[in-house]
């Protein structure tokens, strides 16, 4: 993925820190805006994983630190739930002015309540997804129960949440108590997707039921079985991202939903490998792929290796070429199966190699033709297999020119 560090101003002219996660080719089909949980930051691992999963499906994600949190300026003690909603609207306006208006809003925990409130003020939004969100933001006060008396009596208190200290003022609590969610949810007029874990001990599953009951269709619910509130398991957060991407495409009408309109006008394939590991994102013809190495070679085995992609290209080309030939000749070919393997062998063991002094690549290919073909037809199909374009490319001189991007 491509990650950009950005800044934008809140409605109070405070500089807020943001990250924009882009697909590997830098050309998303849509933008999403992410609101993190109460006192969290944009760097929470779960948010990173969800953003990565969406970017892999060609949806860019802007995530940012609310006022006074993370790398953003300002004093958290001076904020309220309403000011967080205003920060979201400012972020949406920033996207609109510099990239494209967000069509998807995603909120985690209290951020889920915030995106529900903000949606009415972001006209470009077509779909809203909440993750472990409270049905009423005043629910947050149960996290502060030990300090509530001090907040009520002294107007503020120092609280510790997830090992971090924050100052909470009474204005924050008062604003939460004045926020009404049921009417907002009922009049959302956006597609709504609700994620919640039945074992969430921070925001109970009953909150998801209340949000779902208050909302009008289209609305959907996905249970995050065995997930904790912060989605600390990578598999849980990647799953959430993948589900949001699949669901959102129904409502944001991306070009991927109309493949017949995609022309092969640009045959560039873009790959990007991160700072650690070998996991590589690939964008080919607007479609996302992943390459990796086996665990035994230091990879994470999240996708085929480069050589496996090379051999897969030969297999796919072989099948397609045989299908085209059979269709043109009207042969009774029902199905083609191609099984391939790749290894290195000594040139001296290769009957068709010109040199005997080095290792050569050896690809074994077995073609299975399913259908009532006679022997002559089957033999001709075997000859045609060797004529597929990728086969010819692999056996010809290939020129590769490499340059550094300025």
Describe this entry's structure for a reader:
The structure is a single chain. This protein is an alpha/beta fold and 406 residues long. It folds into 3 domains: 2-257, 3-Layer(aba) Sandwich (Rossmann fold), CATH 3.40.50.1820; 259-297; 306-394, 2-Layer Sandwich (GMP Synthetase, Chain A, domain 3), CATH 3.30.300.20. It has helices at 45-56, 81-98, 110-118, 148-154, 170-178, 182-186, 206-214, 234-252, 306-329, 375-385, 389-394; strands at 2-9, 15-22, 30-35, 59-64, 104-108, 127-131, 156-161, 164-169, 191-196, 219-223, 269-273, 280-284, 287-291, 335-346, 359-370. Strand 11 (269-273) and strand 12 form a beta hairpin. Helix 1 (45-56) crosses helix 8 and helix 2 crosses helix 3 (110-118). The longest helix has 24 residues, at 306-329. The chain is elongated.
